[in-house]
Amino acid sequence: MVRAPALPSGRLPLRLGVMAAMLGLLALGLVLGVGFGAVALGPAEVLRALAGLEANPIVTELRLPRVLGAMLVGAALGLSGAAFQGLFRNPLADPYLMGSAAGAAFGVTLAVSLAGGMSGAFAQGAVFEALPVSATLFGFLGALLAVAVTLLLSGGASRTHDLILAGVVVGSVLVSLTSYLMLMDADRVRAVFAYTLGNLAFLGWAGVRSVGFYLLLALPLVWAFGRTLNALSLGEETARSLGLPLPRLKLALIAVVTLLTAAAVAQAGIIGFVGLVAPHILRRLMGGDYRYLLPASALGGAVLMVYADLLARVLIAPAELPVGMVTTLLGGPFFLYLLWRERGRA
Amino acid sequence: MAGPEAGLRAEGVSLAYRGRRVLERVSLELPRGAWLALLGPNGAGKSTLLRLLAGLLGPSEGRVLLEGRPLAGWSPWARGQRLALVPQNGPYPEELTVEEVVRLGRTPHLGLLGREGRADAEAVDWALAQTHTAEFRRRLLGTLSGGERQRVMLARALASRPHYLLLDEPTAHLDLHHQAEFVGLLAGLRAQGIGVLTVLHDPNLARQADRVAFLAEGRVVAEGPPEAVIREDLLARVYGPMVRVREVDGRPVVLLG
Nearest to residue B17, comparing CAs of B54, B40, B51? Predict the structure, then answer.
């Protein structure tokens, strides 16, 4: 045979096109997100400040970390969602619905209160700068616990509805526990409440560095599971018959994804549905091959978060909504649609 | 290639699951290039036996030998290069193309991170050609009919270039035409030295096999060439007195009534 091996399966141009479009949306989101605020900045001003031609502390100290943080948090959630959906072969698995985000929030809150009460830290956003690593670590432990309990309650992950039910119950309990910890420090209730709702207002450069670090760590690790997740879409037995050491691989992937979720939650609180919506849309657009879907879901999550944050800041300006509220309002109906579609299939 | 070294063998295999004996001292042999059909009623342990032979389950007693070595002694990758399993029901990843699915069959050769090369592409092309699925290699699995999907699953199994194919109810979704085509396809694979084991409900498909093993309540109650196993007395014991066996073209045919 003369012709070249048919390796790219014909969908490569489409995939690259979708990725390029998302990068374009991200660039636009960056300019809009940095420009919008009490002091509005035009695109030219934004670009000059970003390029370093003009010193503008509003851009470099306030808005840029927030917009970059939104992208990184969104990327972490999108990647986590795509990986969980492939791992559990369940289109509704995501860090929010499986309770792991709530578990991470509980762990972070516990870390904060153990670190000597909340003493104004939340209000000033300084708490995470004081303890970014241990906050993520506590969040990681909380999220691991939540995933374990959810999987235990639902008897594995194969039955979609059982998994979601267990995840919602575990999530509710953990949110209640988190609220209790917070109420112990009544002065801070408002700031802390905003945090559990999912909020980017606390994000500074330290937070950006923290999420960025874990995302850079997790992205190649999760991507290495691409073929495994593809094989899993043929069912567990087939995947094992192909030689994949599934139990070990699953534990490793759960650990990496949960750490990533915890890193995002530690900076931005509980933000729902981004991990569900981004992979789902992209699967439709560019197919189910996880080697493309994983990085694309990270990009897609970043796009969703940047624009959700923009909405959160625009809708009731000059005040702002917690971004988690925006994603939940937009993602909730989408989730119901998916649930309804799944039911038609079962 | 002959001799005890080549072949997939179960030696006195038993399996207990939750206190129940699912398989009881089963011995079977699948040489390369042969077709062994596993017949039997629902719940006889056919699918369990298939999983045992594929190395997905370990026996409580006895052992399974792959080319002379106990299955447990093979690395999962090496085992996956020689044994290919097609379970009965999906799941079918609707958003993967036919080619993407078939390429997953190369996993045992690639491991977790290996890059696909020329040999992989050639094996995929060969598997697509064998199963007549090359013409829709770019289509999404979700757009195929049940019969087409079944052939794609077979192509996926073939892509690893296995020595032995283990197929659970491979004709369950096929009409008569495609069943006939499927039997023809198996003949081609056997000629290339692939041993095929099929779990079947329908004894009239099993009549084409080289050998038939009849499983009931976890035991092999008869094993041999089709005419020795597909017999009225034997089938009537398991399925009831409605079963008739006649001979067509020198091989048995099963009728009801």
Answer: B51
Kindly determine whether residue B97 and residue A230, on different chains, have CB atoms separated by under 8 Å. Answer: no
For position A217, which CATH number holds? Answer: 1.10.3470.10
What is the C-alpha separation between A70 and A320, in angstroms, rounded? Answer: 15
The CATH classification of domain B8-256, taken from the options 3.90.79.10, 3.30.990.10, 3.40.50.300, 3.30.70.360: 3.40.50.300
Check CB contact of B107 with chain A, cutoff 8 Å: yes
Domain boundaries, chain B: 8-256
The residue segments making up the domain with residue A114 are 60-338
Asked if residue A176 belongs to a domain, the reply is yes
CA distance B87 to chain A (A): 7
Number of domains in chain A: 1
Domain membership flag for residue A51: no
> Which residues on B lie below 8 Å from A240 (Cβ)?
56, 76
Cα(A30)–Cα(B83) distance, rounded to whole angstroms?
52
Low pLDDT (below 70) residues in chain A: 1-10, 115-134, 157-160, 185-194, 344-346
The pLDDT value given to residue A120: 45
Residue corresponding to tokens 């479009």: A21
Global pTM value: 0.88
Tens digits of per-residue pLDDT, B7-56? 999 999 999 988 888 999 999 999 999 999 999 888 888 999 999 999 99
The reported pLDDT for the residue numbered A197 is 78
- B135: contact with A, CB 8 A cutoff: no
Longest dimension (CA), chain B: 57
Residues in B 160-189 with any Cβ partner in A closer than 8 A: 160
Distance between CA atoms of residues A166 and A160, nearest Å: 10
Q: What is the mean pLDDT of residues B230-253?
A: 83
CB contact under 8 A, B104 and A11: no
Does B108 contact A224 at a Cβ distance shorter than 8 Å?
no
